[in-house]
Every structure is written in C-alpha cells, then in structure tokens.
Amino acid sequence: MTRRVLAILGAVAIAVGALAVSDMRGQQFETVGMDFPADWPGRMNIDSATYSDEEFLKRGFKKPHDGYQTVAEYEKVFRQISNWGRWGKNDQMGTLNLITDEKRRQAAALVKSGIAVSMAHTVVQEVTADMQTPFKLEGGGSRFTYGFHSTTQSHLDAVCQFDYKGRLYNGFLIKDTKGPDGCKVQDVDMMKDGLITRGVLMDIPRLKGLPYLEPGTPVYASDFEAWEKKTGVKVGPGDAILLRTGRWARRAEKGPWQLYPAPPGEGEAGYHATTPIWFKQRDVAIVAADVSNDVTPHAEVKPEVLAYTRGMPVHSLAIVALGAIVVDALDFEAVADTAARLNRYEFLVVGAPPRVTGATGSLINMVAVF
Q1: Any alpha helices (H) in the chain, and if so which ranges?
Q2: pLDDT band at 100 (very low <50, low <70, confident <90, very high)
Q3: Residue 231 belongs to what domain range?
Q4: What is the pTM of this model?
C-alpha cells in the first residue's frame, strides 16, 4: 500500500472522526437512560416456533430454550453490553468510533495482491419466494424503484433503523427523532465517508465441512472461536465480522425459499440471540451476514421478548445497545472461494452508502481487497 493511499485513508478517517460533531447541525435532542417502560405500544405479536427438545438439538441448538426467556433477562443483557454514553451522551456514530485512523491504516496494510471481490449480490428484479418487492429498473435504465430493507437485497441498516421500546441507540427518543420524513439522528448519511476497516470472514459451513447451513441453524460465539482457532485469525476492535451461512449456494441449488417470517421448515441460518455479548467482548464495529443476520425462527427466544425486538433480538442488541452497523444479505460465495484459495480470511473491506439525509439504510456494495 503506497504512502499516498495511506494518506487518503487517513484523511477519510479524520473526516469520519469529526462527523459526530458536524452532523448535529446545532440540534439538541433529549436522551434518556435505560429505565425501559414495562410495556410499549409498538410491540408486535410474534409467535415463536415451538420445537421439541429433540428438534432443538437436531437444528443445531446447544440445548433447548437457550435464548432469552423473559424481557427482564433480555434487558439485563442489554444493559451489560450497552455502549450508551461510552463516546458521550450525544454520540450518534456508535461502533464507527472503533474504526479509528490507525484501524484503517492497519486494514489497508492487509492488501498484498490487490485482488478485489464484491460481496454484494446482484439485485433481485423479479418476485420470488424470498423477495416480494423486487428492484425495478425503469426509464430506459435511468430510474430505480426499490425497497432496500429485506432478506435478499444487500443493504445496511442505519443506526436509527431499530429502536427498543421507543429508544434509539444512546437513548435518543424515537418520538422526537424519527418520523415520516426519516431520521433526524443516526441516519445513513453518518456513514458518508465510507466503511473502511478490517474484515474477517467467518465461513461456518467450511468449518463444519458442509456446503451450506440449513435454514434455522443457529451460529454461536463458540463457532466463531473454533473458526479463529482453525484459521489463526482473531476478531478485534473495529473489525467487520462477515458470517457466511452459504445461503446463496443453497439458493442456487434448491431455489428461493421464504426466510422471514419463517414458515415451518424454512427461515434462515444466522446469529444466535446471545452472540451480541461476544460482539461487545470483541468490540466488533460491523455485523454482517449473507442472510438477515438473525437466525429465524428464533425458537430459542420467548415470544414476549420477540414482541419488543421485532422478532430480531440480534438486530435489536447490535443496533440499539451497541450502536453497531448491521449489513444484511451480502453474498460471500466469491469471497469465500478467494479466501480459501489464498488461505487468507482477513482483508481490507471498503463500502459506502449513497448520501441520503434521513434514510434508515441503503443498498450497499461492500468489497474485499486481498
């Protein structure tokens, strides 16, 4: 990596570091603590899958019902791992604070061969079992119409995308900061200078000697640690963790299926509800997967917890408690092949969303550079 490139990355880092102040635009919003109300009108009615003890073990759970069984248990973990106030009471950047100038320099130094591999899936332009509102290309190729929050289009979630009982990350009240025109804080424009850091590919099917994980298979922190031991690559502060379940390999073989909400026998492999504890222990900055991150169905979590977390407790803890950037539905098939060929599971990751004030997320093409 040349000195000129390193200097450019350093300048980008400085710009990102200053964003938390400049983006406030002088506006002040009330922030509150974690004295969550006992109930919340935004709760959803979500039924948890009912598995027998045998079915839990068959699907890869370590034991039956090993997720959050009560709201109190969930909120205890929320408080234990919370980053609220860590970077100041008005912080909006969350775990982007972990991607420092030095972190970007270290990530840039990983570039050896210059091989670049896209980690986005080509947008789906037809109705399928896993995409009911496809991307539309119109106007002779000059106009796009699409909704990016889905299980299938590669996209990121802005930190304002998720709340827990009316509170966004760092205690901003959703009633003051989010409405029909989008978000007044923590929007996608907070990432205008890019996501540039070290990426660590967690190829769990390869760890288990499988082409892909079956729908509903949970991935635990112990799986990540087994993968670290196998590859000699350890996740550290400011990293992007990239979970490959093999979803796209299975889709190519068997065709599309419904991921969320999950009908019986369908759903998606993904992070077990307890993995955000590990994200905090390792200070992960970006949480990404080739699915929508949460294992579905979350059979290990009781319905009363799912009701307050939109059925996605991993999203809720990662985004609202940690302030992490979550990226859904990436495609790691090509990068997994390249990583295996080079025997390199860490690399520079570069990505940037379009600049849209107020947006809760966007399509994104994240690129691995070896």
Answers
A1: 3-22, 53-58, 71-81, 101-108, 174-177, 204-207, 221-231, 247-254, 275-282, 303-308, 313-315, 333-342
A2: very high
A3: 3-369
A4: 0.90
